[in-house]
Design brief:
Bound molecules: the ligand O=C(NCc1ccc(CNCc2ncc[nH]2)cc1)c1csc2nc[nH]c(=O)c12
Largest sheet: 5 strands, parallel
Order of helices and strands: EHHEEEHEHEHEHHHHH
Number of strands: 7
Structural class: alpha/beta
Radius of gyration: 23 Å
Number of helices: 10
Helix content: 25-40%
Distance between the termini: 52 Å
Length: 253
């Protein structure tokens, strides 16, 4: 998968390309990345790429032309290098006005050959380039951050974890809690005793069926307690339904 970020701060993306599982996967060429700085396409010598908003108001707006040129350059790049299928490509604008990111959206994006991530700064981008050149807008939540770069890197991290071979078989993506729609269970490691607290016996039993059931029950218990709405839209496997009934019965007592 070839990801391109259109951003005023290309160096920020080292957080993804240089560290952790995404960094290792990048070094193994499991995915490719390029940053495009719209400042290089500024129409003026001073490199201005933002200007005051028509209609007044606080802050500055990113001008359409340098962004349009940057998007065209990104498309040119993956067409030139005939990376994947041009039709299996998408331009995503990270924006507070976007559709909230979720696992289904991440899964859909992980099937693309090319992904162009447009990262805004200031108060936003001239609507005219968004209307003509952006396929979809995505938000990472109902809170405000200072630009689209951190949201873009969160989206990239979530997408890259779903690509084949990025996660060793150890932390396989499909076992990720959000992949099965439940919160994760508690985890423990050595030492057995920590500040007088021990580890649930079942986890030391070596009985993998019992351990799996305990973990599923804990996930269900936690999801019911902390995020009950996650259970609303979810069809339950027989074992899950049984455990949930047991938990609900206990809580009624
Ligand atoms: O670029 C991003 N943020 C920079 C930013 C911050 C504030 C404003 C100005 N908004 C004024 C307003 N808001 C509601 C009504 N009026 C615009 C852009 C961003 C990308 S994805 C994402 N997901 C969640 N949150 C985010 O901030 C982001």
């Amino acid at each position: 998968m070839f990801i391109q970020a259109i951003t005023l701060f290309p160096e920020m993306f080292a957080s993804i390309t240089e560290y952790g599982v995404t960094g290792r996967a990048f070094k193994q060429n499991l995915w490719q990345f390029a940053a495009i700085n719209p400042r290089q396409f500024a129409d003026n010598k001073l490199g201005y790429i933002d200007d005051r908003p028509f209609g007044g108001g606080p802050g500055m707006i990113m001008m359409a032309s340098p962004i349009q040129t940057a998007i065209d350059a990104a498309k040119q790049h993956y067409k030139q290098h005939s990376i994947g299928q041009p039709e299996n490509s998408r331009v995503v604008y990270l924006s507070p006005q976007g559709a909230p990111l979720n696992h289904a959206k991440v899964q859909a994006l992980s099937r693309l050959d090319n992904l162009v991530l447009l990262c805004g700064r200031y108060e936003g981008i001239d609507e005219r380039v968004l209307q003509t050149s952006v396929d979809e807008e995505i938000s990472i939540g109902d809170f405000v951050v200072s630009g689209g770069e951190l949201p873009a890197m969160m989206l990239m991290d979530a997408v890259l974890r779903l690509l084949p071979n990025v996660l060793g078989d150890s932390a396989s993506a499909e076992q990720d809690s959000f992949a099965n729609g439940l919160l994760d269970c508690p985890h423990y490691t050595r030492p057995t005793e920590f500040q007088g607290m021990s580890v649930p016996e079942v986890l030391k039993s070596g009985n993998h069926a019992l351990i799996a059931e305990w973990r599923l029950e804990q996930s269900l218990r936690r999801t019911l307690q902390r995020r009950p709405e996650l259970l609303d839209g979810r069809c339950l496997l027989p074992q899950e339904a049984r455990l949930l009934d047991k938990i609900r019965l206990e809580q009624e007592q």
